[in-house]
Amino acid sequence: MSPPILEAVDLVRDYRLPRRSFRHPPGVRHALRGVSLAVAAGERVGVVGESGSGKTTLLGCLSGRLVPAAGIVEFLTREGTVVDVLRLSETERRRLARTDWGMVHQNPRDGLRRNVTAGANVGERLMAVGARHYGQIRAAALEWLGHVEIASDRVDDLPETFSGGMQQRLQIARNLVTRPRLVFMDEPTGGLDVSVQARLLDLLRSLVAELGLSAVVVTHDLAVTRLLTHRLLVLRRGEVVESGLTDQVLDDPQHAYTQLLVSSVLHP
Question: pTM of this prediction?
Answer without folding.
Answer: 0.90
